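JOB MANIFEST
job_type = single_chain_structure
chain_count = 1
residues = 143
[input]
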Amino acid sequence: MFVVVALSIVSTRGAGAQSAPAMRRMPIAAHALARGEVLVADDIEFRDTTMRALVDTNQIAAGWITRRAIAAGEVLRSPAIEPPTVVTANQSVEVEWKDQNICLTLRGIATRNAFMGQRVTVRMDRGRRVEATVVAPGRVRID
């Protein structure tokens, strides 16, 4: 009886291990790309490929920047590429705060580079710092 149970466990594990990874449409480098290049539409081609690990490549588009050299045919994904910077370190930014009918806008200084949707620390007057989300070039919002 014990042998039958052990064999059924082994056969169940073997069946699960043979399942093939699903095909996904992925952005691929159309040709070799140098570090620091801004991607254009001709640099990206989409192909159906299998990926064993879950990779979020939905947002990758023209305008993204390479952080290292990328070979032709390589999947384009973070951290090899990053979105364009819309707020730079020490840049004056508009800091927006909204609450129902009230909208307050002040000026501040971003403490580091950030891309759209990223959190960044902003230095306000008298040295106070606030965390805000980048919503547009040169504009952040306190949530």
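[summary]
Confidence is low (pLDDT under 50) at residues 1-12.
The chain has two domains: 21-82, 85-141.
exit_status = 0
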